[in-house]
Amino acid sequence: MTRGKTYGQFCGLARALDHVGDRWTLLIVRELLLGPRTFAALQASLDGISPNLLVDRLRSLASDGIVRRNGAPARSKAVEYRLTDDGAALEPAVLALIRWGARWMTTGPGDDHVEPTWTVLALRALLNGTPAERSVHGNVHLVVDDQAITVAVTRGRRTVRAGHQGPADATVTETMSTVLAVASGLLTLDNNVITGDDELAHAALQTTQGASTG
User: Tell me: the pLDDT tens digits for 38-58?
Assistant: First the structure.
């Protein structure tokens, strides 16, 4: 690492920022936490990043052992990027930042770019490991702007997974903004969007802080 890229401080936070503190870098990590991505898919999700800057960030992440690419020929459309084990270890930090940043999302997206694929990470940040009603258990399949997500309630804890995992005890079909508002405690889940076990669906998604009728 060149001196120009480092804070030069013997501190875990400073050392981390030496590697992932550049603009766009953690958003690239966010995309790759969802799975391998091609260059074109990354650029489409990272609306506003220039191709040259994306190339630079991917090279830096690869050099730091955070990202690796597959063996497809350079400039091929088959080139994909994925996180290494060190890169995947950033997930708890990314989820913590998502939770912390949620306080600035209550006004909605406005003119901001939105990708429904981000829903699963947002729900992991808001719900994973949080307490739920212990008397209910099962799988809730979410259909959120065509994204398939499962929230499992087991032993009074919630776990969010991508895709529809296991048999559905309840299904919720809703928009990204409404589901995130429910999981943030800003709205109450509408029974009209639930198929199956209403009580389980509420236990899986609902938090009570500040909730109002949706």
Answer: 999 999 999 999 999 999 999
